[in-house]
Amino acid sequence: MGLDDKLDAKTDTAGGKLKETAGKVTDNERLEAEGRGDQAQGGLKDAAEDAKDAARKVGDSIKDAFKKD
C-alpha cells in the first residue's frame, strides 16, 4: 500500500468520524450522514489498497516460483 494512498484512506476515515461526531453534537443529521459516508469511503479505499497489495504479493510469489526452476 502506497503511503499516500494509506494516508488518504485514514484521513477520510478520521475526518468522517469528526463530521459524524459534530453532526451528533449539533443535531445535524446531514452532517452525521456525510461523516458516515466519508468513513465508508475511507474503508473502501483501504480495502482496495489491501487487494492491490495482495495481488502484488501473489505475482511476486509466482515470479519467485519460476526463478527457482
TrEMBL record:
Tell me which residues make up the CsbD-like domain. 5-57
Q: Where is this region: Disordered?
A: 1-69
Biased-composition ranges for Basic and acidic residues? 1-37, 46-69
Q: What Pfam family does this protein match (any one)?
A: CsbD
Tell me which family the UniProt entry assigns to this protein. Belongs to the UPF0337 (CsbD) family.
**The protein's name in its UniProt record:** CsbD family protein
